[in-house]
Amino acid sequence: MDNSSIYALALYSLVACCGIMLLVWLWAHKIKNAGVVDIFWSYNFPVIAIILLLLAPGFETRKLLICSMVIIAGMRLGTYLAIRITKHLHVEEGRYQQLRKEWAPNPERKFFFFFQFQAISNVILAVPFFIITLNTTPQISPIEYAGAALWLISVLGEATADAQLAAFKRDPNNKGKVCDKGLWGCSRHPNYFFQWLMWVSYFVFALASPYGYLAIISPAIILYLLLKITGIPMTEEQSIRSKGDAFREYQKRVSVFVPWFKKPL
At what angle do helices 190-206 and 217-228 cross, to 10 degrees? Predict the structure, then answer.
């Protein structure tokens, strides 16, 4: 692995992501809605993929495959979030309202650093992409095809979970209720589960490249964030605030991710 190449690509990616998040923070400050950060956190991965596709020295077919995967996944999730968030653009999501209260009296300053941290996390999580796009081996290996197959399963699963939740919320009869239909009947967070599985697929794909084992950092960080920090804890705290006992009963009946995660948070 060419250290000078990976450092340069990481620097270009960091500058791009931090610049985007600066503009997003200015917009969020103007509209008083920090939730828009989620949209551009997703969109930043396609930005990194384009940089790697254009500048990384690896085998072109491999670059095209992995970068296409990243662009499709990032654009799908970012667009889904954009549609959801822009429907109530001037009503900030409960998680960010809570942060705004906790960070008073100067929440905007802390949100600035929060947005920049999101940009840094984009680059750290992109480690598998850097490793893969530096690989000059002129053929795609079976393990890379396996990673791509796992990626397809994860993206379809996440899209299905998002669609099921969106359909549930569109029904006015479900106001105040908890979605327990489809994938949401066997997992409290099927979208998060498939998001994590997608990062596992990038790790599997990277194993065919030199130093590919280092890509384990991405699914490990994602799993930690989802289980302990910004994913499930914040989402479930907000669900309890908004749905109360209905969500507590749902917690008792349905596992966190899939049945082998038995213990509720």
Answer: 170
Q: How open is the CA angle 171-172-175, to the nearest 5 degrees?
A: 105
Burial letters 43-81, b for 16+ CB under 10 A, else e: bbbbbbbebbbeebebbeebbebbbebbbebbebbbebb
Cα–Cα distance for residue pair 231/222, rounded to 1 Å: 9
Residues 1 and 5: their CA atoms lie apart, in Å, by 8
pTM score > 0.85 for this model? yes
77-95: pLDDT as tens digits: 999 999 989 888 888 887 8
Tokens of 234: 């914040």
> Are 137 and 59 a contacting pair, CB within 8 Å?
yes
Please report how the helices 190-206 and 60-86 are oriented relative to each other, as an axis angle in degrees rounded to 10. Answer: 160
d(CA 224, CA 154): 18
Alpha carbon distance 250, 117 (integer Å) = 33
